[in-house]
TrEMBL record:
Keywords: Kinase, Phosphoprotein, Transferase. One of its GO terms (biological process) is regulation of DNA-templated transcription. One of its GO terms (molecular function) is phosphorelay sensor kinase activity. It comes from Mucilaginibacter pineti. This is histidine kinase. Residues 41-257 form the Histidine kinase domain. Residues 1-37 form the PAC domain. The chain holds residues 741 to 1000 of 1000 of the full protein.
Length: 260
């Protein structure tokens, strides 16, 4: 705090004026806004050429397959997979700028929670050869939320479970109804999270460091975006973990069962 007036007191000690300008806080806010603006513009600009590369890669892949050039088609397919990774990274950056500026839009509908989780799992099964995704569902009923955003959160948790368990093959996705909440948990048996880092993993750009055997790619945004989405939908997200034994990420969303 900087005082605009050097002597804000009368001789008997009463405050006559208190001009406070919270310059530091203003500056910090402005810097944060500039950072968000830059991220927003940069990720938006990156999106256009990447979309175009993807379209060309798909056309080229189809042409090569038709011409019987299977080896070349395979290479283009790998290119396409990398473009998808890039698209996801750019999408995460865009989501963060939207969240930080309060512009993340939600398109709410009624849907069956278990069904959306199942569909998301089916979409992800082909992304791993090593892991088996096991369903342990019990009836949760319908929720009123943004279906795509919820699917995005589940995708994040499952892709993390796959990524952070390179030496084990089981991932369990379970659902249950508890009171007025539908709960989903994604459990892996991988590297786990140290006790003192459990809350930090939900912060933006935070990544647990110090794994000597492995380097894992990522920006440290997935869990921040996921927990913000869940919070905005009236829910909560948490993690249980024992380092070296695995992690279980869960989130709960309110259900409308007619009583609440
Ligand atoms: P990213 O995976 O891109 O780093 P996230 O926000 O998804 O970003 O995760 C933040 C950090 O939390 C990761 O860098 C990792 O250290 C830790 N983490 C997330 N999921 C798991 C998991 N299933 N097992 C162990 N650590 C995890």
């Amino acid at each position: 705090w900087h005082l605009a007036q050097a002597h804000p007191f009368t001789l008997d000690g009463n405050i006559i004026k208190w001009f406070g300008t919270n310059t530091d806080i203003d500056e910090q806010k402005q810097l944060q806004r500039q950072k968000d603006d830059f991220l927003g513009i940069a990720s938006h600009e990156l999106k256009t050429p990447v979309t175009s590369i993807k379209a060309y890669a798909q056309v080229l892949g189809a042409m090569l397959t038709k011409e019987g050039e299977h080896k070349k088609a395979q290479m283009v397919l790998r290119m396409d997979a990398q473009v998808n990774r890039l698209t996801n990274l750019i999408g995460d950056l865009l989501d963060v700028t939207k969240i930080n500026s309060g512009r993340l839009q939600f398109n709410k509908v009624w849907f069956d929670f278990n069904q959306v989780i199942k569909e998301t799992m089916d979409d992800l099964k082909h992304t791993t050869q090593k892991h088996t995704l096991i369903e342990k569902f019990t009836e949760t009923g319908k929720i009123y939320s943004d279906k795509d955003r919820i699917s995005q959160v589940i995708t994040n948790l499952i892709t993390n479970a796959i990524k952070y368990s390179p030496h084990t093959d089981k991932i369990i996705v379970s659902t249950r109804l508890e009171g007025h909440e539908a709960i989903v948990c994604v459990q892996d048996f991988g590297i786990g999270i140290p006790e003192d880092k459990k809350d930090k993993v939900f912060e933006q750009f935070y990544r647990v460091s110090g794994n000597k055997q492995h380097t894992f790619p990522g920006l440290g945004l997935g869990l921040y975006i996921s927990s913000e989405i869940v919070k905005r939908e009236g829910g909560r997200m948490w993690v249980n973990s024992i380092e070296g034994k695995g992690a279980t990420f869960c989130f709960a969303l309110p259900v409308n069962d007619g009583t609440n």
